[in-house]
Write a structure and sequence with these properties.
The chain is α+β, with helices and mostly antiparallel strands. About 20% of the residues lie in helices and about 20% in strands. It has five helices and 21 strands. It has helices at about 1-40, 45-50, 140-160, 245-250, 440-450; strands at about 125, 130, 180, 195-205, 210, 230-235, 260-265, 265-270, 290, 295-305, 315-320, 335-340, 350, 360-365, 370, 385, 395-400, 400-410, 415-420, 430-435, 455-460. Strands 12-14-18-10-4-21 form a six-stranded mixed β-sheet, covered by helices on one side. It has a five-stranded antiparallel β-sheet with strand order 5-6-7-20-11, with no helix packed on it. The protein has a three-stranded antiparallel β-sheet with strand order 9-8-19, with no helix packed on it. It is globular.
Length: about 450
């Protein structure tokens, strides 16, 4: 009996001990959950997923909790990352050239398209054999995998429907894109065209009549179809909606009344501020800095090869170079830069010219025409460049070879670049030019006649 009594007396203590154990366990769960939310490195996972800045309690030198992973270039690189427009005007942060983060970043609140997402090398396999995103909390459930696939599909659809792609890849030109002109070998990379013979006929059309980010040849009817700003001379009406008829009815900046349109991407001084900050074609597409007007623009038609040139047909459209050369492995690139006083040194990089010398861009257009088409679907196949001797291959007729030479007062150092598509990151090889011949038949005949007679003519009458 006394033994039973002692047993009864200890029962409340056992209950109290059990309750205490439960309380201690609950505290451990709460503390463990807090530790998970903070992350093993102390970073705030919620902030990381939403793209917001770190909390005040985070370490000031802890970069691992920035929006996106450490190799996610959406924080600064034009060509990389998955952020859509980074929520800002698209201009780069002046301190490091990086775009600010935003809540519409694709590595944003649901983390559905971050670079350590469903195709991550350290992700675990899902039930369908595909890589599954390993979330910050280690959740690799089939539901999460399905959500990731759905989001990726939506992202692909969004990109397909995006009227202005590539804005998640904005970046400045790199230091490797520049070269001291004294280090360029004389008679270096001359690209295609430029093998001239016979006479020369030039026309004076001013240095810059107007600007816009359209391209009626490559993207007809699409406002901001170029996603970079063009300089125009000649026809004063050129824009996205230009047509043969509208160009013929418009005015011109050319001294002889030639209504042809000539255009190319602008050059910018990166130390300046453009008037298109926050606008399409401007900082929204990664094109920042003040636009530099050329000090001179030479528009000259040349002969080439050992045959007479034919008169250039009215409404013929020609392009040279490739505005997307960087992302298309250099296909059709034809960039040519030099400096005054060093014109025997031609490079496809931005040249650093010495004091007293001026930057020049040379845009040589193909001058062999198929004799039938005034334009082609790809903008190129109706035209060919001549061979190294200046002759056209069989089936193509020689017409005057247009060269545009643009001269600039160059900003000091490497603080300049041409405008480009955002994902082409101001690569100097993307330099290009566009042209439509709207001269009168009288002017076209006079130009060909001048060249074939080996004369030098200026502003032939129409």
């Amino acid at each position: 009996m006394p033994r039973r009594g002692r047993h009864r007396t200890r029962l409340p203590f056992r209950l109290l001990a059990a309750v205490a154990a439960l309380l201690v366990g609950g505290t451990a769960v709460v503390l463990g959950g807090t530790a998970l939310a903070k992350g093993s490195d102390g970073g705030n996972i919620i902030s990381s997923l939403t793209g917001s800045s770190k909390s005040d309690s985070d370490s000031s030198d802890d970069s691992s909790s920035d929006s996106g992973s450490s190799d996610d270039k959406s924080s600064g690189d034009d060509e990389s990352g998955d952020s859509k427009d980074s929520g800002s005007s698209g201009s780069k942060d002046s301190s490091d050239g990086k775009d600010s983060g935003s809540s519409d970043s694709k590595d944003g609140s649901d983390g559905s398209d971050s670079k350590d997402g469903s195709d991550s090398k350290d992700g675990s396999d899902g039930s369908d054999g595909k890589k599954v995103k390993e979330g910050k909390d280690g959740d690799n459930t089939p539901d999460e995998a399905k959500k990731t696939d759905d989001q990726k599909k939506k992202d692909q659809e969004d990109k397909k429907d995006d009227p202005f792609p590539g804005r998640d890849k904005i970046q400045a030109a790199s230091g490797d894109d520049f070269v001291d002109i004294s280090n360029v070998t004389p008679n270096g990379n001359r690209g295609e065209g430029g093998e001239f013979a016979g006479g020369t006929s030039s026309v004076a059309c001013g240095v810059s009549d107007h600007n816009n980010s359209d391209n009626f040849i490559a993207a007809p009817g699409k406002k901001n179809g170029a996603q970079h700003v063009h300089d125009y001379v000649g026809n004063t009406s050129t824009n996205a909606n230009s047509s043969d008829g509208s160009l013929n009815a418009a005015d011109t900046s050319c001294a002889n009344g030639d209504k042809s349109t000539f255009y190319w991407p602008v050059l910018r001084d990166l130390n300046g501020t453009g008037d298109d900050v926050g606008q399409d074609g401007g900082s929204k597409d990664g094109n920042v800095g003040s636009i530099l007007k050329p000090t001179s623009v030479s528009l000259a038609y040349h002969g080439h090869g050992d045959q007479d040139v034919q008169a250039m047909p009215t409404d013929l459209r020609i392009i040279t170079g490739n505005a997307k050369a960087k992302v298309q492995d250099g296909d059709n690139a034809n960039a040519k830069y030099t400096c005054t006083g060093f014109t025997d040194r031609v490079t496809d990089k931005y040249p650093i010219c010495p004091t007293g010398s001026h930057l020049q861009r040379m845009l040589d257009f193909p001058s062999c025409w198929d004799g039938q088409n005034l334009q082609s679907k790809d903008g190129r196949s109706h035209m060919e460049f001549p061979d190294s001797k200046g002759n056209c291959q069989d089936g193509f007729e020689p017409i005057p070879a247009l060269r545009m030479t643009l001269t600039y007062n160059q900003p000091a150092g490497k603080a300049f670049s041409i405008d480009s598509f955002p994902d082409n990151q101001h690569d100097p090889t993307t330099d290009h030019g566009d042209f439509e011949n709207v001269s009168s038949t009288t002017q076209a005949d006079a130009t060909a006649n001048c060249i074939n007679k080996k004369q030098t003519c200026t502003n032939v009458a129409g």
